[in-house]
């Protein structure tokens, strides 16, 4: 899954997820900032890891989108 695919998934499936709209928006904003950086740059990887920390710190355990973001961020 690419970063763009992950952002699209947040957009498409956000309404049906256990996470709130505010939680999804915050993580989406960080991922969008990462997308604006050079692919695989240190800044981009740092932002992806930041998105993972946001999910780990505040999202419900049952969030499928949260699990996707965590998995993606661990590969950054």
Unreliable stretches covering 5 or more consecutive residues: none
Which bin fits the share of residues in helices? Answer: over 70%
Mean pLDDT: 96
User: Which percent band covers the strand fraction?
Assistant: under 5%
What does this structure look like?
With 76 residues, the chain is an all-alpha fold. The chain has helices spanning 3-13, 21-35, 42-58, 64-74. Helix 2 (21-35) runs antiparallel to helix 3 (42-58). The protein is globular and about 30 Å long. 29% of the residues are buried.
Write the layout of secondary structure elements.
Elements: H1 3-13, H2 21-35, H3 42-58, H4 64-74
Helix pairs in contact: 1-2, 1-4, 2-3, 3-4
Summary, kept brief:
With 76 residues, the chain is an all-alpha fold.
Give me some keywords for this one:
single chain, 76 residues, mainly alpha, 4 helices, globular
């Amino acid at each position: 899954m690419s970063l763009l695919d992950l952002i699209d998934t947040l957009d498409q499936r956000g309404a049906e997820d256990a996470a709130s709209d505010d939680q999804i928006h915050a993580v989406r904003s960080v991922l969008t900032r990462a997308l604006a950086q050079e692919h695989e740059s240190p800044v981009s990887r740092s932002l992806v890891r930041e998105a993972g920390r946001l999910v780990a710190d505040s999202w419900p355990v049952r969030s499928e989108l949260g699990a996707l973001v965590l998995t993606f961020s661990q590969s950054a």
